[in-house]
Amino acid sequence: xxxxxxxxxxxxxxxxxxxxxxxxxxxxxxxxxxxxxxxxxxxxxxxxxxxxxxxxxxxxxxxxxxxxxxxxxxxxxxxxxxxxxxxxxxxxxxxxxxxxxxxxxxxxxxxxxxxxxxxxxxxxxxxxxxxxxxxxxxxxxxxxxxxxxxxxxxxxxxxxxxxxxxxxxxxxxxxxxxxxxxxxxxxxxxxxxxxxxxxxxx
Length: 202
Prior knowledge:
- The protein has about 200 residues and is an alpha+beta fold.
- It folds into 2 domains: about 5-75, Glutaredoxin (3-Layer(aba) Sandwich); about 85-190, Glutathione S-transferase Yfyf (Class Pi), Chain A, domain 2 (Up-down Bundle), CATH 1.20.1050.
- It is built from 9 helices and 4 strands; from the N terminus they run E-H-E-H-E-E-H-H-H-H-H-H-H.
- It has a 4-stranded mixed β-sheet, with helices on one face.
- A hairpin with a 5-residue loop joins strand 3 (about 55) and strand 4 (about 60-65).
- The chain is globular.
């Protein structure tokens, strides 16, 4: 049985998994999925109906991007994106939750913006304020370490760069002028092939 990932090319959630698969050099069949017209096959794999969905070559099925990343890291530990120590691993999961929340807020802001004349300015401002607050946390962290948890790339960096990549796709890169350390980190990480190959296109 071959490994399969059900995804969409612009999804920041799926990008997290795609980056990890590429970094670990795990062969995987990529199946572009229409999330507006979900197939019965897809819904059988994931009753929630969200992407990404991983079907591993051992037949195990996982959805939820963070769960998939953790599963891949535990099952194929080289290179590893979670620290081995308990407290550091928990800190990593906490940072990953911050980054996942950033993704959620960016996606919510984009959907609100797409409403056009029906968009609620107060809702937009709320999402933008949350995005700015979360980005500021990451900018502050980079004053201490070269990456978002330590001096090594971790699941926190992968989740955050997926969120910021989607933010850049939808709203441009003006954010970089306000967060110079994060902008430098963003550009440096994008020198990695796994990042270059998964950049979301308009």
